[in-house]
Amino acid sequence: MTGKRNSRVFRIVMLMLLLSVTAWGQKVNTVVIDAGHGGHDTGALGKNSREKDITLSVALQVKDYIKQNLPEVKVVMTRDKDVFVELYRRAKIANESNADLFISIHCNSTKSAIVMGTETFVMGLHKSDANLAVAKAENAAILLEDDYVARYDGFDPNSPEGNIFFSMMQNTFLNKSLDFAGRVQANFRDRVKMYDRGVKQAGFLVLYKTAMPGVLIECGFLSNAADKKFLLSSKGQAQIAYGIY
Question: How far apart are CA 132 and CA 93, in angstroms?
Answer without folding.
Answer: 26
